[in-house]
Amino acid sequence: xxxxxxxxxxxxxxxxxxxxxxxxxxxxxxxxxxxxxxxxxxxxxxxxxxxxxxxxxxxxxxxxxxxxxxxxxxxxxxxxxxxxxxxxxx
Length: 90
Known about the structure:
By secondary structure, the protein is mainly alpha-helical. The chain has one domain (2-89). The protein contains three helices and no strands. The chain has helices spanning 2-17, 24-57, 61-89. α2 runs antiparallel to α3.
């Protein structure tokens, strides 16, 4: 039993030093930061493109921005829901 524990401890040490074993808390924190950055980029996207899109389409820029924001918001909510569903299932 002791030999098995020592072998496992040695393997964990090796995996950590080889960079194949990472801290779960650090990964989760980086994932949360990355998701926040992506969400912010998507939320800002309609404002950054609506003037050019409206000019190309001959549309009202304010109405277009409101529509784009609505679609982006719905898309992000669906992504969060799908992620929560996958977490609950897995």
